[in-house]
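Hello Y.,

Per our agreement to keep a running log of every chain we model this quarter, I'm adding this entry. I've kept the format consistent with earlier entries: sequence first, then predicted structure.
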Amino acid sequence: MKLGYGLSFGILALLAFSSTAFAQGAPAGSNLQAGGLKPPDAIDSDPNATKPSQTEAQLDRADKEDSGRGLEFVFLNAEVGPQYLGLQTFKASGLVDGALVGSKGAGMTYGAGLGVRYLVFTGGARFRFGNFSDWQMWTLDAEAGLHIPLGRVEPYFTFAAGYASFGALDKANIGAAPSGPHGLNVRGGVGVDVYLTNSFSVGGNLSGDVLFLSRSASSVAPIPAGASQDQQNAAALYAKDGSGIGAGATLSAVLGLHF
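Predicted structure for the entry above:
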């Protein structure tokens, strides 16, 4: 009997020692417990997971700084400003005489544009009318643009091409009014719009034009007796066809409506 009690006591002591050693050696967070398994511990959330990523932070900041203008589909604007123009800047082949009718000059230009917009791209038409001392000029162009939205401030670039026409070169003492030059107009421009409201903007535009012009011969009436040499030279020049390649620059203030 004593041997049996001693043996039982030894087995119990061994089991108690093994259980203590196993508990001390088990890894932290182990799901094993004496006597069975316990439910898995709740997964600790990553403290950094609640923080927005750098991209999300930038998008959130952009959303807060967004002008809130929304999409734009149609625009209409008007412009006015000074223009300097040379009719024979790159090529002179009897387009104007240069003495009685000047080949270059400065004047005021008035214009209007109408078009549609898709995201950052625009397309439409633009009309300009320039009033100069010796002639008047109007252009009608198809125009395309690329805009860079920066909140309420929007820089843009434009390219246009179309038709240019000058009024009759009506100058006294030539003998008759020579026909006005006409031809192709090509234009590039850069500008900026500042949106005061979602649908109204003010801004400025700087553009440059290249003009490919020609003129038909005129039926010039005889020059009166005593005409100056300049008058005689002009009469002879306008009796023939003429052409030229000109260039100009325009700086204009722009008011716009956007829908």
